Each structure stands twice: as C-alpha cells, then as structure tokens.
Amino acid sequence: MPYRIRISSNVLEEAILVFCLWMFLFAHSPQFYLGVYLPGYAAGLALCYVHGYFEHAHGTKSNYGILYNGPFFNDGYHVEHHSWPAEHWSRLPGRIVRGARISRWPAVLRWMEAVNLVEMLERVALRSSTLQWFLLTTHERALCRLLPMLQHVRAVQIVGGGMFPRTAILLRRLLPEAEITIMDASAESIQTAKAFIAGDIRLVEGSFKPLQSVNADLVVIPLSFIGDRGAVYRNPPAATVLVHDWIWAKRRAFCRKGVVVSPWLLKRLNLIQR
User: For residue 98, which of 81, 79, 84, 76 has the smallest C-alpha distance?
Assistant: First the structure.
C-alpha cells in the first residue's frame, strides 16, 4: 500500500506563516537573512538532530543534573518521559524509573561518551613539553595541599596511569618511601608510560572494579576512569582514595578535602578517607 503524506490544516497554516516570515526578513534585510538567520536556523536543526539522536542512541537514557534540567524544563528525565509521556515536566523528578539507563551528560553533549576527550588531550600532551610542564606544575600544587593527609601512605595504587603518568611522577617525588603501582587496562598506555617513570614504579596490566578492596594505603582514580565513580565515593576501596574529578563535582558528603587543580583544566582532586 503506497504511503500517503497528509498535511493537516494546522500544519499548512504554520508553514505559510513561516514562509511569510522568511520572505519578510529577506525583503527587509537580505544580508541578515542569508548571513545570520539561515546559518543560525541550520545550526539549530543540527543541534536538534544531535540531541534527539543521543537521547535514544543505544537505548533511552536520562540525565538528572540540575544544571541542565533547571533551565531546560527537566528535559533530562527522558526515560521517565517515555514511561509517562502525558506527565507534566514539573512532575517528572517524582517519577524516576528505578534501574533506568543514566548518562552524566545531557543529550546534546553525549557524543563525549563516544569520544574519549580526556584520552585525546593526553595524546596531545605527549607531543608538547610545555603542556607536560603545565600538567605537572598544576597537579603538584594541588597534591602539596593534600600532602599533610598522606604522611602515612606506604603503598600507592594508581588506576589507569594514563599515557603521561603525571600522578606517579609527582607521588614518587612527594612520597619517596612509598611503593607505587600503576594499573592500566591498556597495554599501549603502559608502554607509553614507561618512557616517563623510574624503574621502581610497577606497571600492571589489568582492570579496576570499583567495589573491590585494594591492598594499598592510597588508591588514585583518574578523570578518565570508565566505571561507577559514585561507587568509589560511597565505598572507598582503600583507607585513602584520591579521585580526579570535574571542577564542579565537590562531593562534600564524601570528601574530607578537595582542591582545584586548575580552572583551565576544569579539574579538581577529591580526597576520601574512611
């Protein structure tokens, strides 16, 4: 049976109004219409497409962040919207679906889950001695502020040391007596890290599970950690845990102390002690 397109009277009226608006703008100011309005209109359509795609890609997901849901009428409660499509947006926070798929990014930024931005920046740092100096300087300043709480650390495990293992480099300097181990699931990252560290730092290929206890005095979790970061805060895997997190993630309910690494990096260090 051939598919027929049916245009309602409301759609026809709205299309005529939009067309008249376009003609008015073009007649009144063709430069504005062609140079500002049309590019902005196209960009808006592109953002709408990206937003709609990532709201449903690999299964519908919700985002419960107040910074997004506040100004955008709880649009992040998308699983809840699918479950109760007629529910008013103001009541969606009371309809949270248990076990719903969750993303920490709003839909329009969810492409960052597919592209590991932190890893991309690490690769850039490998090619720039200036960036390496900046990363070491800013992280050392932050670690020094936390150093009084790390005096009894004798064994350190760094999860995902990264291609440029700045935390291991700095902790070797700040905690010279400690045994330091880097655990990374990527063999490539381990090989790259060998060029930057001394021989007394152990490198282990393996994956870290947030709920497992670690035989170390200090565990360091990187910003690029893929897993349940919240579980690390709720159930620390060691007596002392240092979590690299985004600058806005203060986690005051769990942290003994937190310091900003650099506003330019949008990064902070949160210290948990149980």
Answer: 79
Helix (H, G, I), strand (E, B) or coil at 159: strand
The single-letter DSSP state of residue 97 is: P
Q: How far is CA 243 from CA 43, 143, 193, 254, in A?
A: 37, 12, 20, 11
What are the tens digits of pLDDT across the range 127-182?
Answer: 888 888 998 999 999 999 999 988 889 999 999 866 788 899 999 999 999 999 99
Q: Are 229 and 245 in contact (CB under 8 A)?
A: yes
CATH superfamily of this structure's domain 117-273: Vaccinia Virus protein VP39 (3.40.50.150)
CA distances from 18 to 12, 32, 42, 63 (A): 10, 17, 15, 33
List the domain boundaries for the chain. Answer: 30-112, 117-273
| Chain segment 44-101, per-residue pLDDT in tens | 888 888 888 888 877 888 888 888 899 889 998 999 999 999 999 999 999 999 888 8
**Strand arrangement of the beta sheet that strand 240-246 belongs to:** 202-205, 179-184, 155-159, 218-221, 240-246, 267-273, 257-262
Kindly tell me if the per-residue pLDDT of 1 is higher than 60.
Answer: no
CA atoms within 13 A on the CB side of 172: 16
What does the alpha-carbon distance between residue 188 and residue 26 come to, in Å, rounded to a whole number?
Answer: 56
- Which amino acid, residue 49? Y
- The answer to whether the beta carbons of residues 226 and 103 sit under 8 Å apart is no
